[in-house]
Amino acid sequence: MMMCKEATRLMSLRQDRPLTFQERVSLRLHLSMCGACRECDRQFTLLHEAGRRFGPEHDAEQDDDGH
Question: Mind listing the pLDDT tens digit for each residue in 22-37?
């Protein structure tokens, strides 16, 4: 079974590239059994979404209209 350290590595990696089939299956299995990693995955997703919404493009838009 996958350890939490490997699961968090895959969660982070998933934000940058699609996981392989084996990586997805292994991560899904681990998340089904580990509540701490499910919470970590939720936080990774939240942070990634916030970064996309309020990243450099958002800052550039604010600079253009003076806000």
Answer: 999 999 999 999 999 9
Does residue 67 fall inside a structural domain? Answer: no
Query: Residue 47 domain-assigned?
Result: yes
Q: What's the rounded Cα separation, in Å, for the pair 37 and 11?
A: 9
Extract the tokens encoding 14: 């998933």
pTM, rounded to two decimals: 0.74
Q: The dihedral of CA 17, 10, 50, 63: what is its sign?
A: negative
Average pLDDT over residues 3-28: 96
Supply the range of the domain harboring residue 10: 4-56
5, 11 in Cβ contact below 8 A?
no
Contact criterion met (CB below 8 Å) for 19 and 27: yes
